[in-house]
Amino acid sequence: PAGGTSLAVELAELEQRAGNWEAAAREWGRAVAGNAEMLPNASGQLGEAPVAQRDRVLRALTAPDATLPARTRRLGAELMLAWGRPLEGWAVFESTLTAQSSETAVALRRYADLAGALGTPAGHRARGLALSRWADLVPSPLAERARAEAVRELLDGGDRAAARLALERLAGDSLAPADAQAMAEAGLLEVLVGDGQLDAVERRLADAQLSGDDRSALRLALARARIARGELDRAETVLGDDSSVTAIAQRGWIALYRGDLRGATGAFRTAGPYAGDRTAATERTAMLALLQQIPDDSLPELGAALLTLARGDSAGAVGALQRVARHLPDGGAPDVLLLAGQIAARLGGAQDTTAATLFARIAGEGKDGSSAAPAAADLEWARLLLRQGRAVEAVQRLEHLILTYPTSAFVPEARRELERARGAIPRS
């Protein structure tokens, strides 16, 4: 009844002002149960609950031992979503989908949209699962497009099994429009690349009806998968005539793994600093800086060491890079050793000793004016020491960097790390 709903809202707001969030949740649950249109307001109000009160709020709305209306449980599911627990929220929400109705369809679409706003893998997965169920409640061609979108979300969320199921349903739907079929085909090929069925992808890619962006993305994914197997020629063939900056950057990596330093440098410069995502651009910029320290146009041993890293053998790459550095002039050796140390530090464990030894060696070579490696080694060494709980020693390294290389590009980072390191030292 409208009167009951209004009273529940008033009581909920009163309990909130008093800081009784669990009681407020119960009242908002009653309000939503009486009027589905109250859901956005209730979710927004309870979303402000203090962290310490959130478990109590959720128990009041989703307790499994209580008989709660579907609308009330959906409120709890939305709050889980807002508080960064989208998959738990989806489990609660899915339990309310016992009847097909227009209200259920609206609630599903709202949950999918809210999940998509998170931008996290779990959020993508929850959105994909919600879209898959929503597609069952809406007419064609909206249903087919929703399933195609669900595939993309499930892949972005890492749920390959659910993506396959959605793809199979879409592939068997003769009513699916061309754009949905194209999206599904792209998703299926992406799944196959992830499953290592590279030959099958190459065969299907030639005749697949895909958008230009999807075709380019799949080519790049396939090329990277070939590289991970050490199949450089096939990786280059896959890229074909793609002239995008991302493809040019990928050709640069292939050239580098072959030991063609000049070709790699040219490709990286042509691609520029912004091709690909931020991580890819950062890695490429760092590699270009390393290559500029090496006078050789060709160095197959370095290419082989870097290919070892690309194929997932980080420990093997650390040893291979150290061997390469032994035969390089002073201008290039420190930078190659720095890379080896950074890889060892990321591995952690027993490799921490190797990393510390390499950083100490590079930093000990002092200021030579031609390489940023000594300053970078001081910074990496300090970070390693800080991770090991040796804050006093980390402070010494950072102060050494700032005083010895005052014009270095690493000084701002060193100052930030210095503040963190000093904060980690207990006050006497």
Offer a few descriptive terms:
428 residues, mainly alpha, 72% helix
Give an overview in words.
With 428 residues, the protein is mainly alpha-helical. Helix content is 72%, strand content 0%. Helix 2 crosses helix 5 (70-82) and helix 22 packs antiparallel against helix 23. The longest helix is centred in the middle third of the chain and has 17 residues, at 178-194. It starts with a helix and ends in a 5-residue tail after the last helix.
Beta-strand percent range: under 5%
SSE succession: HHHHHHHHHHHHHHHHHHHHHHHH
Structural class by secondary-structure content: mainly alpha
Count up the helices. 24
Mean pLDDT across all residues, rounded?
Answer: 89
The main pleated sheet reads as: none
Distance between the termini: 65 Å
Number of strands: 0
Shape: flat
Q: Output the radius of gyration.
A: 28 Å
- What is the percent of helical residues? over 70%
In the predicted model, the low-confidence regions spanning at least 5 consecutive residues are none
Structure, briefly:
The chain is mainly alpha-helical. The chain contains 24 helices and no strands.
Q: Mind sketching the topology for me?
A:
Elements: H1 2-17, H2 21-34, H3 39-46, H4 54-62, H5 70-82, H6 86-94, H7 102-116, H8 121-135, H9 142-156, H10 160-171, H11 178-194, H12 198-207, H13 212-228, H14 232-239, H15 245-257, H16 261-271, H17 278-291, H18 300-310, H19 314-325, H20 333-347, H21 351-364, H22 373-387, H23 391-404, H24 411-423
Helix pairs in contact: 1-2, 2-4, 2-5, 3-5, 4-5, 5-6, 5-7, 6-8, 7-8, 8-9, 9-10, 9-11, 10-11, 11-12, 11-13, 12-13, 13-14, 13-15, 14-15, 15-16, 16-17, 18-19, 19-20, 20-21, 20-22, 21-22, 22-23, 22-24, 23-24
